[in-house]
Specification:
Elements: H1 2-23, E1 33-38, E2 41-62, E3 68-73, E4 80-81, E5 86-90, H2 93-128, H3 134-166, E6 169-171, E7 176-178, E8 188-189, E9 198-213, H4 214-226, E10 229-230, E11 237-241, E12 252-257, E13 267-275, E14 286-303, E15 308-309, E16 315-320, E17 326-330, E18 332-337, E19 340-345, E20 352-356, E21 368-371
Parallel strand pairs: 1-21
Antiparallel strand pairs: 1-20, 2-9, 2-14, 3-5, 3-8, 4-7, 5-6, 7-9, 9-13, 10-14, 11-12, 11-14, 12-13, 14-19, 15-16, 16-17, 16-20, 18-19
Length: about 400
């Protein structure tokens, strides 16, 4: 009987405790924690990345200047050649004969001078005593003058024949790397032919031809005139990114921007020069060039990864506003500077932009802001890139 009473009392106590627990509400969850950065204003480097192609500093297509058969090729394809170095030998036999013929014609003309001059002198004495007519004397003088003129013509013909003879040996017009030969010994070549025998390119220094929209260049010039952008010296700095994504170690110099705009594309051509001592840059290679155009003062910067797009495509960010509540801001962005957007409207210095923990957040939600810390990159094994394994120590 006493055991039954004890069990009833315990049951009543448990029911009373359960009723008390149902009347108490659980504590509210803490506000979600977000990583934020504080927006500041400062100087921003303005750089533009443009596509371009490598062009040789000097290019020469080697063509024959006389007709004939190629006897020999005097270079090795792909070698470095010097200006004046012999490249091809054309059969010189017909041109040697032409030189000999011109030399003989010159000797004959020079011999005719002595006879015509002597006749003109003799007729000069005879005309004084009226032994001959005045007309005969004048004819003799004219014949002597024609003989002297013929000597000049024959000398010019000899010089032309000698020039053609020297042109049977084709020399390199510039120094540089020579390409493949499109003609072999035994081939017939002609003066002024369309096809080049070979091509020489000087690539110790190369050009990089870039294309930039005229509207972007116009906007930059207007900002410079207004004082919002300062130029870093007279020439903009240029850095190249190669086809494999690596950065070319030598900085280039901007040479000029074309004075005309292509009406078909609305773009201008920009040319830069780069030293190429290791011959990494080859003509025709595709590259991307980053041109440092100047510095914008008092620029408001926000990281690219913090900016998203709304349904209309406008750039937006989430910020922590009054009362630590989330606010959405629509931005006006002009361009990028490195890993940041340059914001012209929508943010000001001192705003707290959410960098981490913004998933599933809505405007008006209260959050707990903490300073955002960039996480180190991980390697293939999931370890921080800066860390070393014990075996490496």
């Amino acid at each position: 009987m006493q055991l039954r009473s004890a069990s009833s009392a315990s049951l009543a106590l448990l029911l009373a405790l359960g009723a008390c627990g149902k009347n108490e509400s659980p504590p509210p969850p803490p506000p979600p924690q977000v990583g934020v950065i504080t927006v500041t204003s400062g100087s921003a480097t303005l750089a533009t990345e443009l596509p371009g192609r490598i062009a040789a500093f000097e290019t020469s297509d080697v063509r024959p200047q006389v007709n004939g058969l190629i006897e020999r090729r005097l270079f090795k394809e792909g070698d470095e050649v010097r200006a004046g170095q012999a490249l091809y030998q054309i059969d010189p036999s017909p041109y040697r004969a032409a030189v000999a013929n011109a030399r003989a014609s010159l000797a004959r003309a020079e011999a005719a001078i002595a006879s015509s001059d002597a006749l003109a002198r003799r007729y000069g004495e005879l005309v004084k005593i009226n032994a001959i007519s005045r007309q005969d004397y004048e004819n003799a003088v004219t014949t002597a003058a024609q003989a002297r003129a013929d000597v000049g013509a024959q000398r010019a013909a000899l010089q032309t024949a000698q020039i053609d003879l020297t042109r049977t040996r084709i020399n390199a017009p510039i120094s540089g790397r020579i390409g493949r030969s499109t003609y072999t010994p035994g081939a017939l070549v002609t003066s002024g032919q369309t096809d080049a025998l070979t091509t020489i390119q000087h690539i110790d220094t190369v050009y990089v031809d870039l294309t930039q929209s005229s509207s972007g260049l116009l906007k930059l010039r207007q900002q410079i005139l207004k004082g919002g952008v300062a130029r870093d010296g007279d020439a903009a700095r240029v850095q190249l990114k190669l086809e494999d994504g690596t950065v070319y170690p030598i900085q280039g110099e901007l040479q000029f921007a074309d004075v005309t705009v292509d009406p078909a594309t609305g773009s201008q051509t920009i040319r830069a020069t780069f030293k190429n001592p290791q011959r990494l840059l080859l003509p025709g290679m595709y590259v991307r060039a980053e041109i440092v155009e100047g510095t914008q003062k008092d620029a408001v910067l926000v990281p690219l990864r913090a900016v998203t797009r709304d349904e209309k495509g406008n750039p937006t960010v989430l910020v922590v506003g009054q009362g630590d509540k989330v606010e959405a801001r629509t931005l006006t962005t002009a361009r990028t500077s490195g890993e940041n957007w340059i914001v012209s409207d929508g943010l000001k210095a001192g705003d707290r932009v959410i960098m981490e923990g913004a998933m599933m957040l809505r405007p008006g939600v209260q959050v707990k802001p903490v300073p955002y810390t960039e996480k180190p990159a991980s390697d293939a094994n999931g370890q921080p890139a800066a860390a070393q394994s014990p075996a490496a120590k």
